[in-house]
Amino acid sequence: MYTRKNQKDLTAAEKARFVSAVLEVKRSGRYDDFVRTHGAYYVPDGSPGKRVAHMAPTFFPWHRRFLLEFERALQAVAPGVTVPYWDWTVDNTQETGPWGDDFLGGNGRSSDHQVMTGPFAYRTGNWDVTVGVTVNRFLTRDFGRPARPVPLPTRADLARAVEEPLYDAAPWDSTVPKGFRNTFEGWSVGGGPTWRNHNLVHRWVGGAMNSATSPNDPVFWLHHSFCDLVWDRWQKAHPHSGFVPVGKLADDDPQSGRVFSLNEPMAPWGDKPSSLLSHASLYRYA
Hints:
By secondary structure, the chain is mostly helical. It has helices at 12-28, 30-40, 59-77, 155-162, 180-185, 197-205, 219-237, and strands at residues 2-4, 283-285.
């Protein structure tokens, strides 16, 4: 049993150990494998293929397993290191978020959004982006997207998602107008905000985070650690409302074979959502 801490509560030594472990996983080549995995399993509604990572009920269990795989990779090179979380409803400025020079570095410069500070700046020689959708070899960020400004989600935005009594609903995609999963994952429904909660954070950070290969930015892991914590909060708030769909979808359902139910194995690991509904035996959140 280990503890994932709020990033604002990390000591200087804890920050340094986390950064060192991430850089070592990057040097080994394993980090880019995580980026490829996320890119491969980012399958939108209208694209062919199985949807397990996004726009589907398995958004939460899939990313829980993904985070665990990354955390184990860190711990293999630095025992005791865990993935901290970033509560973007509280630490919502460049001064209070994880953007220090001793941790994740700051915003990208205005000319090309290249991150110039911190241990993941390209100029340090330690962070070469080789998997992505652009030709840039450097990490990019564009906080708040000044050209078309977007804010970080507020406490009220998050509360609206956690208050949803239902986990998810048909048609099990980005168009679901109700339910915790899509309200939190944050796809636009019925003329509402273009993005909400999880999606809005990706847009606010911008740059590498605004793509299917978003793990190129190490803040991805802190963001999804918080997403995992929010799922835990929702479960505690709604103990009688669990993961759906419980059973395999009917053959004549348009989502049959594309969306996975409670006891169907998820690619690429073969874990069932039912095995990932609780983290209590593995870690806790401080």
